[in-house]
Design brief:
With 442 residues, the chain is of the alpha/beta class. The chain has helices spanning 3-21, 23-37, 44-55, 60-71, 74-103, 139-151, 168-177, 194-203, 216-223, 227-241, 256-259, 262-271, 296-310, 324-327, 364-367, 371-379, 398-406, 419-441, and strands at residues 110-113, 156-159, 182-187, 206-211, 245-251, 273-280, 316-319, 337-340, 346-347, 354-355, 409-410. The strands form two sheets. The chain has a nine-stranded mixed β-sheet. Strands 10-11 form a two-stranded antiparallel ribbon. Helix 1 (3-21) packs across helix 5, helix 2 (23-37) runs antiparallel to helix 3 (44-55) and helix 5 crosses helix 8. The longest helix is centred in the first third of the chain and has 30 residues, at 74-103. It is globular. It starts with a helix and ends with a helix.
């Protein structure tokens, strides 16, 4: 650790100790301190909101912050503030902007990558189900991606798969080696144990987004009998050790009414969740079930429920399809993130399995200059209606045109999926959502 980083770490620890002693007084001071670090002035609106939250003890976000200060392990609090709130939020942006201007390509805020395609479950409708199960990114490659990413100003790394915790020891090594970065793993949580919780406390910079599809019936329907109880057991272990976590939920036609309900969200808060990430079902692969696609009623229900919950629950929620109005449309293609699968293919999105570059053949920066990513940059946002962010599920023909112009190939295994065929599978759902989304947007 450099002298500068060591001093910054000491300052964070000292500030957090002071806040824990008197949150009502110190929280506003922390907001002012963080505000002083934002030299760009681009986050004035956010800081006005944070100031209001810090001064109102009845505010749901104020309640969540106080819960974190009370229940989350100190080492994780310290790493979250230094690595996420400072490095990823403030230091990253000006560095990436400078490189984007120089190189003429997008530099993402986060990288999503698959340490392995192997998994101990076989979930119905999994977007990664057709990847080759023997595929892995070895430690040296993962380390190189993070090293090159840090040079580009990227401090946020997210693991998916497969099941990332199959490679938990490598995940620990990477977190220890790259102490200034924040790591998040999407996981089925069936491999979480006391050792994992203890290592998470020791390192401080590893968080989990736990996959769950609702209650026992909904979760075990897609993930297999007994999975739901293992998930609850994992949540209990993490909560008892002071390791914060969130839930990751794919909503579809058969569970949207459950996972968006007030009762279920309250249940997730009771289990210890601090955040929740919602994704909608995508029909990837030749055997994809089209009946799982969310209907316009399903998506509109989630649209209203997520917004309502943000106003009253100590739970940070993101709906990656319905929150386009807050992100300015699609965030893929390197605009805010990209996906590197276990074979090394650099894809625009975890749900868009086409690529024209492989991390084994070139640098991370060069993969960001691939023609498909240029197509994304030139066409985003894909619609003026920000409730239609996706080039596949919301805007028929946009993805197909970009893939064909760029010459990108399918990375879907065992047999590549023709982009025209994938587009056709989504046509009915996209047309139905277009009409509803236009009414909501107006």
């Amino acid at each position: 650790m450099s002298i500068k980083a060591s001093v910054a770490s000491s300052v964070v620890k000292q500030e957090l100790r002071r806040i824990r002693e008197d949150p009502a007084k110190r929280l506003p001071e922390l907001v002012n301190w963080a505000h002083s670090l934002d030299k760009s002035g681009k986050n004035e609106g956010m800081f006005r909101t944070l100031d209001q939250v810090a001064k109102d003890p009845s505010n749901n976000w104020n309640i969540m912050i106080n819960t974190i200060l009370k229940n989350v392990h100190p080492s994780i609090q310290e790493k979250f503030v230094s690595n996420f709130a400072v490095n990823s939020a403030f230091i990253s942006a000006p560095k990436r902007e400078k490189i984007m201007k120089r190189e003429g390509c997008n530099i993402p805020w986060a990288i999503l990558m698959d340490p392995t395609a192997s998994c101990n479950l076989h979930c119905t409708g999994c977007w990664a189900a057709d990847y080759r199960k023997t595929s892995n990114l070895d430690y040296a490659t993962l380390d190189r991606i993070i090293t090159e990413g840090r040079q580009l100003g990227i401090y946020m790394y997210i693991y998916s798969g497969g099941e990332p915790l199959v490679r938990s020891e490598d995940i620990f090594r990477l977190a220890e080696h790259h102490k200034d970065c924040m790591f998040l793993s999407f996981t089925n949580a069936t491999m979480v144990d006391e050792h994992f919780a203890e290592e998470s406390c020791r390192l401080g910079n590893i968080l989990l987004a736990i996959s769950i599809e609702g209650y026992e019936k909904e979760t075990d329907m897609r993930r297999g009998a007994g999975t739901y109880q293992k998930v609850l057991d994992a949540m209990h272990i993490l909560k008892s050790h002071g390791v914060p976590f969130g839930f990751s939920t794919c909503y579809h036609h058969y569970n949207a009414d459950i996972v968006g309900s007030d009762e279920w969200l309250d249940f997730m808060v009771e289990q210890g969740s601090y955040f929740g990430w919602y994704f909608t079902y995508m029909p990837l692969g030749q055997d994809a079930r089209l009946d799982l696609l969310a209907t316009p009623d399903d998506r509109e229900f989630m649209y209203h429920q997520v917004r309502k919950s943000r106003e009253k629950r100590p739970l940070f929620l993101i709906d990656f399809w319905n929150d386009g109005e807050f992100s300015g449309g699609c965030i893929a293609g390197g605009r805010s993130y990209l996906h590197i699968n276990a074979d090394g293919d650099v894809e625009p999105c975890a749900f868009i399995h086409y690529s024209g570059a492989n991390i084994h053949d070139m640098s991370l920066l060069d993969t960001l200059k691939q023609p498909l990513f240029k197509e994304y940059a030139n066409n985003q946002p894909f619609n003026e209606n920000m409730l239609r962010p996706c080039p596949l599920l919301d805007n028929q023909g946009k993805l197909q045109a970009m893939v064909e112009r760029s010459g990108a190939h399918s990375t879907q295994l065992p047999i590549g999926e023709d982009v025209a065929a994938l587009t056709e599978k989504c046509r009915t759902a996209a047309d139905a959502w277009e009409e509803r989304a236009n009414l909501l947007w107006e």
